[in-house]
User: Which sequence fits this backbone?
């Protein structure tokens, strides 16, 4: 049966060139080639087998990932992979490991917060893996509120050292990846104390373990924080707890790019602007948005392929039943998620450009765009991770009962993905930051013209008056109509909130009381940005037979799906009439029919290997049923016909001898 | 530290009598006592310890549950527990096991579909556990579409037997609980064939395993279908696959209450009405709605208690930070879920009454209410399970990073609960059944007065004209105003769909094309029922200081939360003005402040033991942080300072000797 392709007919229906779409998805021909090569390298290497993960106990699981990580590092060296290639290699291995922390948190923190001297010393050690580091910020008692961290770093003038200490149980560092068993170093965030005065939270390079025998250094207690959601997921990693009992580090291990402590114990701000950190933040959030699009693309790829294979009901005269992909309810749940994957992908591409722009501005001390950039990236983070987490679970449900099997790949994908809603800025806290920006922007409208993604708010007075001119369902295909609708709704919500804030005794009280409405206004603002980014992407040249057309359909699906979902906002603000909202919904239905023939080809464009998907339901060849069976047979419970425990605990019941048996 | 109560202050704020609320939640003083006794029996018995579940491999997990199940059955016998008590015992043990299938599927199917003779033979065997049975309907290729099942039962006149056979791979039975390793019998659903003619799908009692040595009988292949979502969850159970190779069973093992096959091979309908099955269906769905309320009550109990303990931001002058429960965003995500738990609870109480009513009617051959009952219970199933699944995950997110730990209890609760959206009628398929009913009801309005939960549609012509009269936020506290708003919106959506259906060539084509909108109309209909059930419950006498008042607040929260969430519908149908919708939202905010002082007492009213919750974050005493630490230390990775794999896979990297080491 190898070599069959149960989805061949579906593939032949595609109205666009899949190979060119793959490049559009990857971002560039070069990016496509790197991804493709790394994905195949991983898929073809037996060390990276993933199937057995759910069957392993915690220790074996952890050890297994250590092995994969070592093997990956060997490949990086043997094949002389670039940092970019190595990043993709890690991505396709698809298991959280301490090297994620090393490359995505430890090294960037050193590079962003260290002085030139510090970077010269520590970065090469990290990049050659002579030390392994983690990012130890969160404590048992504090995550979102970084300024509330309790770990202390007290300057000891005598010895020219800092004393790192955990004064309370809740000050224990809690969550950092790799901290429990692997990492030799950590950047520990602690409140700086000099002569009994507090100077805020700073990062300190602390060695945790002996480089000789890996044992924890004196005064440092390390441990694992226990199992997390899912089987593999973050259980392959040792997220850890650390307590410090007056641990001493040299003064030059405080990260001193932005502020310094001198030998004399003087606290000084350097002339490097604090804002420098923003560029790193944009880059981290770009990665998060990109990861969201990848995770969602995986889920929709599985659900779409399986929905084309799965048939249920609708057989006529004994013919085959209907593919569930043909049901409008299935389409209305699935296709907006396919469209979202593309929307987030293009949003992340655009964030890369934004990153370059921010960096260039920072170099010439232009901080004018920072508040807008801060709000926009915080909003993107929240919007894309929330939609992706929800979308993955929806895809699981779209697969019916079989989606509940681990072999469908979806439960693990969900369990792996959901913490993205919480880490790197809890999603609701993020939306409230966007809200602060919106309130400020709207309040300042008289004095200050908003820029970048908030520029449309400069037209707020117009947008709160103008009404939608759509008259037919076709009018809803016009990007100008779509964009104006999203802008008008968001502007009206922001302005509305600001007006109501004015009714409160103090702005702070009003903000607290209305925070839930403010979060909704923030979401509306973020949707303007994602929709407009998608639209702008399509104004560029996009080569390939039918590629641009297929993407235009998705862009409209994305926008009109959101419009329908949030129709309450659009109607409440009065920009749309019920009739216009209903026309949008009619158009949306028509668009689903346009997506349908392209559905399989669209998810093929992600170029996911079967290894990466690790889903029987999402197999490229659609050979679902025999492979489900095969996967099931590998369960340890199938080792014997009569399972362990049957004689002891079931037979006595059946034979009515329970009373006399020992349990 | 034992004996502390970090939530004592919170508890003292309650404005109602918790002990009476417990009774209101349980349904009656007797029900409360049974639950309380069974919950404590389980909590105090070390055999039922659950903590180690996530650490066990599949085989140990399975065996462990067999042991618990045997112990439970021993208790049932030793303590002479009633069937009701035994049901609660199983409930509090909180692990899927083959006895669930025995008591909730196998026995009811025998009782509902067997003849008197069959019941006399089989039911006592099952009730004494001399045989253990499962319900084998779903196949690899068919779940929702039961009429599409492929397993065949061919009558052999010669031997007076049926031949049970699996003709294709996709005809393999797939999913039945206990099927792989435990059950000795199954009710196998198969298409009946007599002389080459098909007579639809029927149930057959098939023995699977030898009662002597438990080995599978000749011609029967049994196996486990592999791991499922979560650690414990359904992995404690052996959901199985079965294939039949021309397995013979005596003719009298076809369940023949409704139709029979005679010795001569004649297929006959008995004079027992087919509709008899409906009573069982109502009872099954009552259980599902009740389970939804329980699962949601667990999740909100955890999230509410932890939100009162968790403090983040907002410290003034070095004082304590703000309890996250005080943030309006936290309240607006959490309190509607608390209200939903109560709403679903009262809905399930009402379904019990409906069950009695249906049974009484069936006894006198009154089938007039069945279509309405069918739609109402299908809709309840879909609405409550979908909201509960989503609500559990929201509660997990409300707990920030710590909610991602298994020790929070929330990941396992989610993974355990979500299949309820799929089994016993996939949720979207259910909504489409409701939609068929609505379309029929509205089309027949001229001729037939709708009854029961659909009675309000009889006033459709009025409801599509009348507009909301609310003028102040207080007006939204009036149950009449609320109910009319929900009725008007639902009626308008149903009527609107019907009008649009008329524009299509055929009703079937229209139904398919508009199915997504029809599903939305169905949801609106179901919400009418849940809201009105809640309101009617409060029109009864409810004793206890402040109990009724506290429930009234929750009822309003539930309704106005839905109104805000679906504001698009309310506005699109024109029943509400934007101003009125906004007043509802203002009132909702006020109501959150009224819930706040009662929050902890409300979740205490569920009377959940710490054992049942199995959540460090949801502990009754609020002693979260030390216990999180304790729980973490039990992870096997903490057995040694230097974990297995470090020497082999990490040290060579650090010492730059990877090239020469063997991986
Ligand atoms: C898998 C995983 C990996 C992680 N890895 C690391 C790591 O390597 N290093 C590290 O340092 N940390 C790590 N973390 C920790 C992570 O950064 C924190 O969990 C995250 O910052 C959220 O903080 P919290 O847990 O304190 O949530 P909390 O802030 O306690 O959130 C709880 C609830 O309170 C609400 N809330 C909080 N503040 C407000 C407010 N002002 N207004 C309204 N509502 C509010 C939130 O919305 C949320 O609903 C990791 C976490 C996870 C889950
Ligand atoms: C934990 C668990 C335990 C179970 N236990 C048992 C058991 O003990 N015994 C047993 O017999 N079975 C059992 N089942 C199986 C369960 O009953 C089925 O999974 C369920 O009936 C759903 O059917 P399906 O899997 O075929 O979904 P499908 O019907 O294949 O659903 C896939 C998708 O197709 C859509 N779809 C299907 N038909 C239509 C339509 N007409 N219109 C629009 N959309 C449609 C659905 O909405 C869904 O999105 C169990 C399942 C689980 C997960
Ligand atoms: Ca496991």
Assistant:
């Amino acid at each position: 049966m190898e070599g069959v392709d149960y989805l061949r007919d579906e593939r032949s229906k595609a109205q666009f060139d899949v190979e060119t779409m793959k490049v559009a998805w990857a971002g560039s021909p070069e990016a496509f080639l790197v991804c493709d090569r790394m994905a195949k390298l991983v898929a073809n290497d037996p060390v990276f087998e993933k199937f057995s993960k759910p069957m392993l106990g915690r220790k074996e699981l952890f050890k297994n990932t250590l092995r994969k990580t070592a093997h990956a590092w060997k490949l990086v060296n043997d094949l002389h992979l670039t940092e970019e290639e190595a990043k993709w290699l890690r991505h396709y291995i698809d298991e959280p490991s301490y090297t994620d922390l090393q490359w995505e948190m430890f090294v960037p923190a050193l590079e962003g917060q260290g002085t030139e001297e510090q970077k010269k010393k520590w970065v090469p050690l990290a990049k050659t893996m002579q030390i392994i580091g983690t990012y130890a910020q969160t404590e048992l008692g504090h995550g979102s509120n970084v300024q509330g961290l309790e770990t202390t770093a007290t300057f000891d003038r005598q010895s020219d050292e800092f004393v790192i200490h955990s004064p309370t149980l809740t000050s224990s560092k809690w969550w950092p990846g790799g901290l429990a068993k692997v990492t030799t170093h950590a950047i520990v965030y602690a409140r700086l104390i000099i002569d009994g005065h507090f100077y805020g939270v700073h990062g300190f390079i602390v060695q945790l373990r002996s480089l000789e025998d890996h044992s924890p250094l004196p005064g440092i207690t390390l441990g694992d924080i226990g199992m997390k959601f899912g089987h593999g997921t973050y259980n392959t990693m040792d997220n850890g707890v650390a307590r410090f009992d007056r641990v001493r580090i040299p003064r030059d291990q405080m990260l001193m790019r932005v502020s310094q402590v001198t030998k004399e114990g003087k606290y000084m701000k350097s002339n490097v602007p604090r804002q420098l950190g923003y560029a790193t933040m944009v880059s981290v959030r770009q990665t998060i948005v990109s990861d969201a699009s990848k995770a969602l693309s995986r889920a929709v790829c599985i659900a779409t392929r399986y929905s084309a294979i799965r048939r249920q009901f609708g057989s006529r005269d004994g013919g085959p039943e209907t593919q569930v992909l043909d049901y409008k309810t299935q389409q209305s749940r699935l296709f907006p998620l396919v469209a979202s994957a593309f929307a987030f992908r293009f949003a992340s591409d655009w964030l890369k450009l934004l990153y370059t722009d921010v960096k260039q501005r920072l170099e010439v001390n232009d901080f004018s765009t920072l508040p807008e950039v801060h709000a926009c990236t915080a909003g993107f983070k929240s919007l894309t991770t929330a939609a992706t987490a929800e979308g993955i679970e929806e895809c699981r449900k779209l697969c019916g009962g079989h989606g509940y099997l681990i072999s469908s790949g979806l439960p693990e994908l969900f369990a792996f993905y959901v913490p993205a809603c919480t880490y790197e800025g809890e999603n609701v806290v993020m939306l409230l930051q966007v809200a602060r920006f919106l309130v400020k922007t709207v309040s300042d409208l008289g004095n200050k013209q908003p820029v970048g993604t908030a520029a449309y708010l400069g037209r707020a007075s117009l947008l709160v008056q103008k009404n939608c001119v759509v008259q037919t369902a076709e009018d809803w295909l016009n990007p100008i109509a779509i964009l104006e609708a999203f802008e008008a709704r968001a502007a009206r919500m922001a302005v509305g909130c600001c007006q109501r804030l004015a009714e409160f005794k103090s702005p702070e009280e009003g903000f607290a009381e209305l925070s839930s409405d403010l979060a909704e206004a923030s979401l509306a603002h973020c949707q303007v940005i994602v929709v407009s980014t998608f639209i702008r992407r399509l104004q560029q040249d996009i080569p390939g037979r039918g590629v641009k057309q297929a993407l235009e359909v998705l862009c409209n699906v994305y926008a009109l799906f959101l419009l329908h979902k949030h129709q309450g906002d659009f109607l409440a603000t009065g920009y749309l009439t019920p009739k216009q909202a209903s026309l949008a919904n009619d158009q949306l239905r028509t668009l689903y029919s346009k997506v349908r023939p392209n559905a399989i080809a669209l998810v093929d464009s992600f170029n996911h290997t079967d290894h990466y998907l690790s889903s029987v339901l999402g197999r490229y060849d659609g050979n679902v049923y025999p492979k489900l069976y095969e996967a099931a047979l590998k369960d340890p419970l199938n080792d014997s016909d009569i399972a362990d425990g049957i004689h002891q605990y079931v037979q006595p019941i059946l034979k009515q001898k329970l009373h006399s048996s020992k349990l």
